[in-house]
Specification:
Structural class: mainly alpha
Radius of gyration: 22 Å
CATH architecture of the largest domain: Up-down Bundle
Shape: globular
Strand content: under 5%
CATH class of the largest domain: Mainly Alpha
Distance between the termini: 47 Å
CATH topology of the largest domain: Growth Hormone, Chain: A
Number of helices: 18
CATH superfamily of the largest domain: MFS general substrate transporter like domains
Number of strands: 0
Number of domains: 3
Order of helices and strands: HHHHHHHHHHHHHHHHHH
Length: 494
Amino acid sequence: MSLPASPASAPPDPRRWWVLAVIGAAQLMVVLDATIVNIALPSAQVDLGFSDSDRQWVVTAYSLAFGSLLLIGGRLADLFGRKRAFLAGAAGFALASALAGAAGSFELLILGRVLQGIFGAVLAPACLTLLNTTFTAGRERAKALGVFGAIAGTGGAIGLLLGGVLTEHLSWRWTLYVNLVFAVLAIVGGILLLHPARDPGRPRLDVPGTLFVSTGLFCVVYGLSEAESDGWTSATTLGLLAAGTVLVAAFAYWQTRAASPLLPLRILQDRNRAASFTAVLVAAVGMFGIFLFLTYYLQVSLGYSPVSTGLAFLPMIFALVLSAQIATNISVRRTGLRVAVPGGMLLAAGGLVWLTGIGLDTGYASHVLPPLIVIGLGLGHVMPPAIGAATAGVLPADAGAASATVNTMQQVGGSIGTALLNTLAASAATRYLTDHPGDPAARAEAGIHSFTTAFWWSAGIFAAGALATAVLYRSATPAEEPAESSGKTAALHL
């Protein structure tokens, strides 16, 4: 009796390139929502009338739900089947986008963004798993991963431009409605082209671990946001931060005892990997603040249109892509991670300090463009090498957990950074208005003061990250650094 063919020896799916197009549409939909709503925030705030302290939740609600549930999202695909998870994630994401787009109140908008994050956490792992199981030949898999990585890498820039065009010519609501187009393509294509598949091992879900980490992260982010209104020493703020810390610690302890842990702690035992996770987290904390506050500066203070705002960010994206190629092909090979990654963080910190020179009468070409390019060059030496090192050399059984952890660090870092920096910025604006009563120009100047405060703190966060990663990374010879794998793997996460 002949044995069934293994996946590696089975004939390739003749429709595999159409499958890649379906997966790409779903991946682009998820990636777009990391940036597309940022450009629309000022218009949405005017329309719905929410406060400066509340605006961060439009970003944070999505990234927090997405990041805290990514680890379990991959398990759901294995448990219920990848096709089912893909279709459920795409359909749920579409409905959540429609709800958020039609929201007549701030609360309904936030509910829609939370639901987007939940279904995105189911959809994103299913996309990558389907890609790996559809393309089994080495050469074709590399080509497919390259296409997938290009979609992920350019999604942020596309989101900035598309968000500006839709907001300016239609409405901010269309930055959410546009997901319905991608979702329909993904769902119809998924029904017609994807094959049902399920992990025969039927992994168990780590429900306690999910509750610990999700509730803990929410408490931390909510505590940071409450500090703006209640103060850093209030019982509410301190209680939430303490509860969040205890719950995250409980999650770490539970992972040592769980039968099927969401995050096997053995993947953190390698110093380079732990340093890389730290680098990704720190970079996300600082980077999300740049997008949020520079968007408000360009639109509110300088009067830029949404389209012009999206275009204004492109030089930073181009600099980041260029720097990423230099980092993965030259810098890491010659100097090692211990020099390249902290060096990139210091460069980003310098760009942010330069950006604090903005004012009501400063121009884009003189005070925004140069520091943006410097920040992009710095981030290109942080994210790709760190992501590659975080996922290189893990056991096959831990590859999914390592990849999911990278995504989680990015999303959680963005949530914490947005909440923390928005609180610091709003507090700075309030203090400025208190110190300048009766000044007709005080409100506009208070906005500038809040933005520069956020940039100073972001610079400090990058500087602290540079110190931490310089200590954590091993003093390996450059030849030992996973440069090639860094570039290939990082493309999936940029």
